[in-house]
Amino acid sequence: MIDSIPSPDSFNDSRILFSIELPPNSMETQVLSPSLKDIVDRILLSRRITRLDQRLLLSLANLSRDEQALLNEVFDRLRKGLLRVVD
């Protein structure tokens, strides 16, 4: 059940904030984090990578071969100057 949805005019950006009432015995908080592929896709499509993105990608461990290939693609493009680092 959605408690409230503010009008779009009340935002300075395009984010929509809402709260959801979860059923009893469920996790009180659900954190949806984007997948590594989602992050890499965003970086490659925008041709921009933030310092935070860089630190996050460098801190990852125990990656599959596919995930390693995704990271290699990002850092290869970064080394070639095809990505711009933004803050």
Would you kindly provide a written description of the structure presented here, covering whatever features stand out?
- Strands 1-2 form a two-stranded parallel ribbon.
- The protein is globular, with a radius of gyration of 18 Å.
- Helices cover 40% and strands 7% of the residues.
- The protein has one domain (8-86).
- Helix 1 packs parallel to helix 3 (65-79).
- The chain has helices at residues 36-46, 51-59, 65-79; strands spanning 48-50, 84-86.
- It has 3 helices and 2 strands.
- With 87 residues, it is mostly helical.
Describe how the helices and strands are arranged:
Elements: H1 36-46, E1 48-50, H2 51-59, H3 65-79, E2 84-86
Parallel strand pairs: 1-2
Helix pairs in contact: 1-3
